Each structure stands twice: as C-alpha cells, then as structure tokens.
Predict the 3D structure of the following.
Amino acid sequence: MPEGDKDILLASTPDAWVQAAAARWRELLNDHAQCEKKAASTALALMFTYPEDRRLAAALSRLAREELRHFEQVQKLMAALEVPFERQRPGRYASGLRAPLRTADPGRKLDLLLTGALIEARSCERFRLLAPRLPPQVGGFYAQLAHSEARHFEQYLDLAQEAAALEWRQRLQELAEHEARLATAPDAQLRFHSGPPAHVPRPVE
Ligand SMILES: [Fe+2]
Ligand SMILES: [Fe+2]
C-alpha cells in the first residue's frame, strides 16, 4: 500500500477522531458523499482556471470522473445501508485550508495544487485508519478508496512540481531579461558589471 501521504502530512490523525468516526460512521458517510462530489468539482474548477495546461486537464479530467464514480458508490452504499441523506453545514477544514493561499498567479496555481495534494493525502490516511474498524461492507470500500486517494495525492503533487518548475523558469526569464538590459545598455559609469560607456571619450590627439 502506498505510504506517500506520510511524506507530506506533518501530523497523524488524532486517535480521538478515529474512535469517534468509527462509532459514528453512518453520519460520516453522508459527509463523505459530499467530499467526493466536492473533489470532482475542485478538479473541474482547476481545469477551467488553467485551460491552456493540457497535462493538467488530462490528469484532472480523469480524476474528476473517478471522484464522481466514488460519489455514486457512496450513494449506493448509503441506499443499501439505509443511511438517509441529510444536509450538513460544511466543516472548517476546506475553507480553513484555502485561507492562506495566494490569490493571484504566479503562486495561486501552485498553492491550489499543493492543497489538493494535502487533502488527498489526508483522505487516504483516514480511509486507511477507518477501514479495519468499520463493518466489512464499508471497511472494504474504504480500503479500496485509500488506494485511489494515494494515487490522487501523487498526481496533485506531480502537477504541483511542474507548476513550481514553470514558475521558476518564468521568474528566471524575467529577472534574466532585466539583468541583460543592465549589462548591455549604455551606462554612465564603467564598472565591472556595467554596460558599455554611454560617452566614449575622444582619443587625445
Ligand atoms: Fe475520491
Ligand atoms: Fe481523491
């Protein structure tokens, strides 16, 4: 089983959460269905925000379809187990995670992708923790989902690494153009890093 989530999560889920979630799994199934739907819509939103990024579109289109399939599977399970649908107020996690993100590019894309990786990593960790503690029908499903979320976590992290590399190249290009102008434009002073002298003194006759 992939252990990748351990690489980026700085804290393990508290045992008190695991105990409570295992006891109240029916209630959480409701929230879980919303999470799968939200995971699909987050992936789609990224595709709309960065339409020129074909690799991102291809990866996230597949991911969104998979999340919607998870949503359908949770709904089916809820119906089979007679867990009623209930409207719930969203928890603090998603909005809290977004709070420190940069609001414009460059930077926004990297932050969104890194946040995606963190959410998937946390989901993966929690499915793995809950799987052995739940009734087999739900536990088996959660064990499968842990694998999918581990893959999603790695996809988001790969995309984030690409975005970071692109941001690095674009910034280097901007700063290098600036440096090139300073080193080549006529300069009032002759210095080691100056441009050529603006006024060439006439040779003394
Ligand atoms: Fe999912
Ligand atoms: Fe996922």
